[in-house]
Specification:
homodimer
Chain lengths: ~220, ~220
């Protein structure tokens, strides 16, 4: 058995592993007769690459022209606001900086927690308020907290603030499915993963896929 | 439609969301007639909680007495070494610090990259060498790079170093399945997710589940 597993390991140059992985993903999608929208292709494939979960090929949902809109924002130096430090850590800050953008996560700031406690609101709500004050175009990337999407919905409907783009991929079992459906009704351009699945890794993968289209246009994926 | 989604949002106190989520996971596992090993239960459930993917209930694989071994190491102040900054960001450093441990990730250190280039080896190999020099019990948590597991295998088989525990949950399409099978033959206690799935989020969830058993024994999950 040992010998077999060792024999199965093939030497692939580190630089080629990602290329090879995307080729395998492409083969498997063809076997499943799944044809991705050309505009969305690189984003959906990178989410599959980060999760090894082909379900995303059918559940990722894009508003009309979402990818073009997101690319235009990033090209213009938009910032990204995540709802976890994990998603923030997963986004290529160096590549984003080339475009003039930076990544923020307010969720774990001690003063956000203190303000949320004092006002009796969620940390997500305070974080979204902080995002609204950045003063430049903002993409919200939510991979964890449905409360962030619900807070955004309230801000949009209340005329308080509307982010320029929402990546809505929180994961979970309580209010997650409904919060995603809700944000898709708010007239904000979005990429949302319908259902329970998502996560900080998925949020970061979507951001990176968009960033790499601009900074590494020759790259696979 | 809008109204319906809004009506579906239920108010759950933030502190109760996780409890409620774990109750739902328990219900669904019962519906699927899946009974988890009591020792492994909290770990597997937290992975499902972080991924919304019930497949982990059947693919997570534990060496004999793995959970007890890992808890003993953490109780004794073991450090955790991850293979991504994302996994590092996802692990509760504060809770781990209560036990006397800390989290390291060497993978993105500029001098690790420089050394790997100079020696013509992978960054993962150099990172695992750094881990071997920490000088206290070490749990390797690998959610990304199968090369980290392959390097460990080489070190163990070559008598160079053996970590005290391996969490082997890299995700991907190239060498991932084989690297996981390989590390399970090396006589090191492990928690491995068989197959392609895993990720930094899964690695962090397993670490946190183990840490919380010690630091928040009353918690759900």
């Amino acid at each position: 058995m040992k010998q077999n597993h060792l024999a199965e390991i093939e030497y692939v140059r580190p630089a080629d592993i990602e290329k090879r992985s995307f080729a395998i993903i492409g083969q498997e999608l063809r076997k499943m007769n799944i044809v991705l929208d050309p505009e969305q292709d690189k984003i959906t494939r990178r989410v599959i690459h980060t999760s090894a979960d082909f379900e995303y090929a059918t559940t990722l949902t894009y508003s009309d022209g979402a990818v073009g809109t997101a690319l235009g924002l990033l090209r213009g130096g938009a910032d990204i606001v995540t709802d976890t430090n994990m998603a923030k850590a997963g986004i290529s800050r160096r590549a984003l900086a080339k475009l003039g953008g930076e990544v923020h996560c307010f969720m774990a700031d001690p003063d956000v927690a203190a303000e949320a406690r004092a006002r009796g609101v969620t940390r997500a709500a305070v974080s979204m308020e902080r995002a609204s004050k950045i003063g430049k175009p903002v993409i919200i990337a939510c991979g964890n907290a449905p409360t962030a999407l619900i807070s955004l919905h309230d801000m949009i409907r209340g005329g308080v603030w509307k982010p320029d783009f929402v990546i809505g991929v929180p994961v979970g079992f309580v209010n997650v499915v409904a919060a995603k459906e809700l944000i898709m009704t708010d007239g904000v351009p979005y990429i949302v993963n319908r259902g329970r699945k998502g996560g900080s890794n998925v949020a970061a993968a979507i951001c990176n896929a968009l960033i790499y289209i601009l900074t590494e246009p020759e790259a696979h994926g």
